[in-house]
Structure formats: C-alpha cells, structure tokens
Fold these 3 entries.
Entry 1:
Amino acid sequence: TTQHTKIIFDMELQLFGINHKTSKLSERELFIINDSNQDNFINFFQGEFGDLIESFCALSTCNRTEVYFFGHPGLAISIAQKTLEFLGSSDSVKQGLYFFDGDEAVEHMCCVASGLDSQVLGEQEILGQFKKSLETYTKLGVLNGQLQRLSEEIISIAKAARTETKIGFNPLSVSGLSLKIVQEIFENPAKQKLTIVGAGQMAISVIENFYNNGIKNIHAVNRSRRLLEINDSFSLVTNHLSRLGTFIQTTDILVTSVNSPLP
C-alpha cells in the first residue's frame, strides 16, 4: 500500500501535441485521434503504458491534436514517439511536437479550452470540443482521478475567462465568420439555400451554426455518401461530388471545406 501511494504521488500532468502554430494541415492530418481510431488508440495506450500512467485522454480538432495524461515524470517524449509509430505518422509530424508538464501543462490546457491558443482568438467551438472529449474518455473509463478533477477545474477557468473578459466579445471562428459574411450580404439569410462541400468536422460546424441561426435549406456534397448528424433535431445525407455542378446552379451560398491543392 505504501509503495502504491508513493507511485500515485510521484505522477504529474504531462501533454504532447501539434497545432496550427507548429505544423501544416497535411502533417496534422497524419496525427488525428477521432471516432475512427479512438478505440484502437485507447487499447494501445492502456496496453503500452497502463502501469506508468493513472489516467489519460486526447483532443483532436481541425487545428490540433493533443494527448493529456497523469504519469511518472519524463515519460512524454517516449510515449509520443510510440504513439506516432502506432498512428503511422511520419518524421515530419515529430518535428512539430510540443511538450508541457506540471504548471506549464495546466496553463496550456487553460489557454486551449478558453480559445486563447486558437487560430482565431477567442473562437467559440473549442470549449465545447474540449468538454466533449473529456466526457467521451470519462465514459470510456480511462479519464479519472487527478486528471479528471483537474480537467473539471480547467473547464471552470475557461468558462470564467469567457464570461468575465471580452475574449469572446467578437467571436470570429471559421463557422462564425462565414455566417457573419452571409448576414452582411443577404437581407434575409434564412430564405437562402446553402450547399456545403465536404463532410469533416469543420463542415459540420458550419452547418450547425447556419442551422441554429435560421438557415434550414441545407445540402451537403462529399466524395462519399455519409450521414451527418448535426444535432438532436437535424441530420442530412451527403450527395455525391458528381452532383456538385447541379447544386451550384441553384444554391445561394456555397461553402467549401475540403482538402485541395487548388482553390
């Protein structure tokens, strides 16, 4: 019991990741932990490092992927290397990695959750994405103990930062900015037809934002057919990319969110 207690107290918060400041989009796409590989990632992480860590979770958004864990000091570099190997990421991704531990890790997580570390300062989506990630890993039974308690405190800090300061006074997230432009152009945006090209997280964010602001005539076009569950009251099935020409002729607003070497 004494030895076990000592191990717990020797553990500290550590994190590693890449973001829009340290890497290109093509590199970030090689280091993603989402619904498609989340279960495999959890099995890998528990299998490889279960005896060395108390708790862990991961956050992946359009602009970042980060892994947070409570473990023995000095583990982050070796864990990051094995994680990149597990994901099949290239050496170029390794060059963009950053590492934080202790108080610096706490400060970084607070900046991420509040939107201070975002590409668009103070953007709205990140706090929801941060909370959803924590809820997911908690339900899966791998986020608990010290990391869970600390994460709850970080969410409270981020909420306070957004409530008590003007960081979100003029939020210009990508989805928010596109909606703002549409509202400036059209006298009655709710009457317009919207077509989204793409079906990734950014496209879903745009659709949800437009839908919540009264634009209901929405269609999506994608390389493959997918069901997009936007929220509890709205979902849609994407149309094949071959139909893009037809949709362009009748749409009022076209938003593209796809990987392409050309505009």
Entry 2:
Amino acid sequence: VRGPGLFDAYYAPWRPRAAVLRDGWFMTGDVGVVEASGALTLRGRRKSTIVVAGLKLFPEEVETVLTAFPTVAEARVVARPHRALGELPHAEVVLHPGVTLDRDALARHCAARLSAWKMPVTYTVVAAIPKTPGGKIARR
C-alpha cells in the first residue's frame, strides 16, 4: 500500500517511514491477485504460507473450505514439520453446538475442493481457535 497518510514511522521496532518503505510502497505481507474485473482478491499472508514438497499453500484457502462444511463453525490450518516433505497442513476445527464431526465426510468435502497436497493430514476438534488481540487467527 502507499499514500500520503500511511504513517510517519514504524512503531516496533521504531524506524522512520523512509526506512520501512520500498520504492514508496509499504509491504504488508498480504498476497493477492487482481482479477480481470479489477477486483483485488486476497489469498493469504506471506508469513502464514505452508510449503509442502516445494509447493506453497495458504492456510486461509483451506480454512475457507473447512468452514463451508455444515458442522464446522471455525477452522485453523497450521504447518507441522515433515522429514521428507518439509511441512504438512493440519486442521483444527470448532464445531457448531450439538454436532459431532464425521471426519470421513469432512475429508471427502475437502478432497472435492482442494488439490491433494493441500489436504489436511489430521482434523482435530478444539473448543476454540486461538486469536490475536486484534481478533485474527493466531498462527504461531
């Protein structure tokens, strides 16, 4: 992003605006594409990228598929190290009240919508997804 009202300095660690910008642009770490219509679609964040055998995936893409499943209220996809492949995606899901998780049905749902290497290796039911103070999914 860029613009005259962006900021005067970067707070932590403190650095003057000129030291933070690259050719006048502030690099947010967001990854997106400009569609043919001109709309900007955000795909994920550079820091949250999971690399499976050299292929990059954005957890947000997988989380969108997971939360489209009827019993899943919230989801978080995290990377876990793998000796041969580098990292593999693992899913944590919060269910809607009063339902149980059919892991096989969830896996079929994901397989119909994701490439095989984007498929979560595990699906763990959790009570809540950790969030940052700003309400975003905590990735670390």
Entry 3:
Amino acid sequence: SFIPKDALQKLKFTGVSEDKLIDISNPITEDFVTMRPTLLYSLIKNAKDNMNRNVSNIRFFEVSRTFEKAEELAKEDIKVGIILAGENDKTLWNPKPVHYDFYDLKGIVEEIFSKLKFQSFSIKRSVQTEFHPGRSADVFVGKEYIGSFGEIHPDVLENFGLNKKTILVAEFNIELIKKYINKPFVYQGIVKYPAVPRDLALVMNENILVGDVLKTIEKIDKKVEKVELFDIYRGVGVLPGMKSVAISVILRDKNKTLEEKEIVEISNKIVNKVKKDFDGILRQ
C-alpha cells in the first residue's frame, strides 16, 4: 500500500492533489513513504521488475485499496488495476505472436463491465496526463469519473526506464461501479440444445463503425446468442474506400434444436438489416 514520495511525479499523475496524500511519519525506507492513491505505480513497477528478469510478456491484475486524506482517518476505495505488455499468446487464428494494443485492453474492460452488468457508462478520449492522449479513454457515468484505460504516456515510461516499450494499463473504482449496478445477477443452467455457428462476410463503407454493426445484429433475434468480429479485409476484390467485415454469429434456441429454415430466416434478417442500416452487402 506504500509508494515512494516521487512516485506520482514519475507517473505525471494529477488525479489527486498533493494535500490529499497521506505520508508516513516514520517510513521504513524511501520506497515506502506515501500511501498510494492509485494502483498505477505498483502495476508499472511490477511489470518493470518482471522485464528485468527477462519476462517480457506481461498480463496481470490487482484488486486493492487506495488511500486519500479525509476528515477522519482516510478515505479508502477498492480499485481494480490491469496491465498488459509484450506479446499475446499464440492461438490457432494467430500463429505468430502479436503485440498487445489498445483494443486488447478495451476488450478486457468491456468483458469485465459486461460480467458486472455495468452498462450506464460513456467513454471519452482520456485527459489523464499519465496516459497517451490518442490511445486512451476515460469512463464516466454522467459527470462522475469511474476510471481510465489505455496506453501509458511515453514520458512516463521514460521516467521508469522503459523507453521504447508499450505498456497498457486500466484502473477503475469498483466502489463507484457497484454504485451504478442496479440489475440483479440471474444464473441459468447450461443449455442442452446445440449452438449453430454462421460466418458472414459483409462489405461496407470504410467509415462504418463495426461496433455499431455488431450491436445491431445482437438485437435482431432472441436466438442470436453471440456476435463477434474475427477479420477485417481490405484489398483485392474489395473496392477502395470499402472494407470486408467478417463476423461470426452463434445461434441457439434454449428450448429446442434449431431447424434449417429458422437458421436461414435469421441469417437473411441479419443481411437485410445490415443492408438497410449500413448499406452493407454480402461479399461475393
């Protein structure tokens, strides 16, 4: 729970004013002077310690308390911090390692929010000075700040001796997220009827946001269980200014096995809806 006195300067962290910091009157060492108001310093330091031991692929998280001055004792918040660096694991679809980027972290954040049923939030370009201004985002509910995620600013990495590295970090206030979760958790048994996968390649204008397309497909029919993007293609066979978006759709009826005519009907509904809303067509 303790960090050095200069930790927030190294982070370029402005989320807490200096008069809100809690310093220890008799610190054991210079590394344990201030009670941390953020998890970022600890996350980055742990990443650096691993890298110094030739462990360059970093993927870990921490759930801990942070501290600020209050009228009585201290204000304590429970926060979650996530850090990524290096290369992602190789998979069947990704035989060559790929460096983590903003979208890997964004996917993890969205999955956490989905699991927690935290939905009433908005995402804006980050103004936090510890983050890269063009590759990071702040999360709000109304005007209340919940946390941030994205790429750490190069100047901060230089302060930690991590030049030319790319490190991605997220930090969110769990107490505030809990405040805005108003839907009860409902658990269901495993569905015994089989899922039916369908892959669609849809050609659309380059400016269309794929996230909007996925959300639209999810709402088309109750039998649409899951929608995922797995490829975007530009090149031979696709006109300039256009892109081919490959989408995997999982269909399932919780009460019976889907019939072929139902699968065809839902697939046609998807194609027609994408055509109507986004002027997208099936790739021939």
